[in-house]
Amino acid sequence: MNRLRALFLDAGNTILAMDYGLLSRWASMAGLLIEAEILARAEPMARLTLNQYLREGASTEAGSTLSVYAQAILDAASDLDEETLPLERARAALPTLLPILQDSSNWDRLWSRVPAGVPEALARAKQAGLRLVVVSNSDGGIDKKLARARIDHYFDAIVDSGSVGVEKPDPRIFEIALERAGCAASEALHCGDLEVVDVRGAERAGLRAVLLDPYGDWLDTKLGFEVPTCETVSDVPTLVARLLAESDAEA
């Protein structure tokens, strides 16, 4: 196995998280009372539904994809708290909630949180000599989001699909990232939150890939989704600790 030289990271749900308190307030504007904690648990569950939709070839940046994603979060929230949030009410609220989410300034405000431990993990990875690269499907503005979150300085390169004209899972976006990282595919690892986009796209480009699965949802066969055959990890700090331990063991 070649020595790992670069760590590629997705942005949303990887190094940036939603402000669930803000999302809860927007849901209340649509007539839904959903606690932030419920939304924070519902979102990872919704990724499986979104992943199934993206398997058909839809773009993550399409308006229809946002609609599917938002409804999947509301459906999952209903599953978690059906007494307070009946499914019919959750689905009826989408037409009111969706325009709020579609507003670009609101979308930027929503994706504003940095998960606990991520800055420290990025600092450890850089100190260990890894080149850090963001590989994100976005609208060309992920650099601004990272700057507002004050974590942009950790990265050696930012590859935004909206800027480079190709998006995951197309392997060409990873090839661009490899060129900017100055390493071979066998020397890089990519981590993200969607199996068909992040894992399969990275693997098609020859990279090792890891799927973020904070609650083990992807491996729960009772949910009725196909269990992915890939490495999983709960969060970025755990991933960095694992990679550095592997590096120490190989030294």
Task: Kindly summarize this structure in a few lines.
The chain is of the alpha/beta class and 251 residues long. It contains twelve helices and eight strands.
Word description of this protein:
- This protein is an alpha/beta fold and 251 residues long.
- Helices cover 50% and strands 13% of the residues.
- The chain has twelve helices and eight strands.
- It has a six-stranded parallel β-sheet with strand order 5-4-1-6-7-8, sandwiched between helices.
- Helix 2 (36-54) crosses helix 3 (63-80) and helix 7 (118-127) runs parallel beside helix 12 (236-250).
- The longest helix is centred in the N-terminal third of the chain and has 19 residues, at 36-54.
* Beta-strand segment tally: 8
Order of helices and strands: EEHHHHHHEHEHEHHEHEEH
Largest sheet: 6 strands, parallel
Please state how the strands of the largest beta sheet are arranged side by side.
5-4-1-6-7-8
- Helix segment count? 12
β content, as a range? 5-15%
Could you tell me the radius of gyration in angstroms?
18 Å
Ranges where pLDDT stays below 50 over 5 or more residues in a row are none
Distance between the termini: 12 Å
How would you describe the shape? globular
Mean pLDDT: 94
Please estimate the helix content: 40-55%
Query: What structural category arises from helix and sheet content?
Result: alpha/beta
